[in-house]
Write a sequence for this structure.
């Protein structure tokens, strides 16, 4: 609910503020007339700081150790590029450096996606580009009405389903793209983009999160993108042990669940972890990284990469 949803997204700053206020009231407790009152508030605020800090620590405060790729592993990269704020060359270089097999790019047009694919091919990592779009993006200059994904040919042929392209079953305001393997083998890949929880879009935001949860209701699914939601917002939306539908939080499994991906103007541990790579139990996360090296170079989101292994391995 507004404004709790917006405030709770920033657990890092909340913990810091509670801790600072606890220290203030400890100092005020030196004054005898208000000692009991000040000590009581210091205790409450200190407990709040510890609880929030404990939640963050439990989700993972940062671990960029990525294991070596194996013959069966898949690396997934997601990055809200903020449209033209991030160049195709930059996207391609990061994707190749991270040896990504799947790249989901909210706020990226198919024209940019095709340029990324061409550059990656020239760098020795060919990709097929797919997308879903609403309206005439490029006419109004709002690249958020397009979501692009790149999938390595080594994973087989993929096709975006018709309901993603025509919007009959999709997120409400900015599009997501659902790609399925043509031969029926391999995971369904969802490039996710939920609308931001602004005042006029609160119900649309809730509906978007439910739609994304429904994509993980069954089957073999990898769900990656900008959810505009933290794990707190997904409470109660998981089934069978998942955090969103049957999908689990790969960054929590690998020690990065509390590392903020937005905005890049804030230190990572003070930001909001609203970009996610989720997967059904068919996959086990073995490593992840939130890339901070591009902070301040255009986009306001950090790239996130996760390595997955088939759970049977």
């Amino acid at each position: 609910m507004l404004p709790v949803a917006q405030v709770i997204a920033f657990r890092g700053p909340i913990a810091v503020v509670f801790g600072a206020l606890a220290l203030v009231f400890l100092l005020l407790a030196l004054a005898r007339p208000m000692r009991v009152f000040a000590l009581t508030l210091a205790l409450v605020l200190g407990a709040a700081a510890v609880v929030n800090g404990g939640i963050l620590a439990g989700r993972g405060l940062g671990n960029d150790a990525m294991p070596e790729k194996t013959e069966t592993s898949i690396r997934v990269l997601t990055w809200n590029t903020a449209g033209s704020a991030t160049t195709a060359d930059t996207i391609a270089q990061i994707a190749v450096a991270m040896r990504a097999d799947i790249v989901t790019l909210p706020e990226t047009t198919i024209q940019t996606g095709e340029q990324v694919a061409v550059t990656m091919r020239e760098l020795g990592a060919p990709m097929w580009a797919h997308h879903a779009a609403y309206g005439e993006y490029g006419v109004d200059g709002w690249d958020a009405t397009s979501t692009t994904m790149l999938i390595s040919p080594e994973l087989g042929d993929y096709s975006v389903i018709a309901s993603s392209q025509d919007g009959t079953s999709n997120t409400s305001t900015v599009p997501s793209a659902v790609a399925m393997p043509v031969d029926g083998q391999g995971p369904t890949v969802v490039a996710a983009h939920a609308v931001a929880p602004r005042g006029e879009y609160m119900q649309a935001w809730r509906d978007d999160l439910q739609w994304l949860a429904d994509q993980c209701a069954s089957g073999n699914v990898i769900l990656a993108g900008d959810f505009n939601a933290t794990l707190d917002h997904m409470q109660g939306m998981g089934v069978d042990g998942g955090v969103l539908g049957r999908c689990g939080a790969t960054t929590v499994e690998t020690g990065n669940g509390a590392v903020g991906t937005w905005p890049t103007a804030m230190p990572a541990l003070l930001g909001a972890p609203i970009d996610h790579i989720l997967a059904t139990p068919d996959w086990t996360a073995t490593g992840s990284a939130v890339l901070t090296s591009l902070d301040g170079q255009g986009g306001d989101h950090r790239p996130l990469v996760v390595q997955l292994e088939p759970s049977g391995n």
